[in-house]
Amino acid sequence: MLVFSPLAFWAHIAPVASPTIAHGGSWHRAFHQANHTISQLTTAEKVNLTSAFLGPCPSNSGSVPRLGIPGLCFDDGRRSP
Fold this sequence. Notes:
The protein has 2 helices and 3 strands, in the order H-H-E-E-E. It is α+β, with helices and mostly antiparallel strands. The protein has a domain at about 45-75.
């Protein structure tokens, strides 16, 4: 399910170069992997990942099953009665 998100504006932006901190080591690999994954996402999938909707949790994000990206459950913790 796709829901409009104010973040949809940013969905068309291409991956950016890694910041200065990511010139080597595991951070460099992590930024490379993230940019590679983002480059495979369609605009609709980017919007789906950055949108929130009601579901089993108070707020949920979409998923991208074809890339193995699960949806996320957002909850601030226990609610007092």
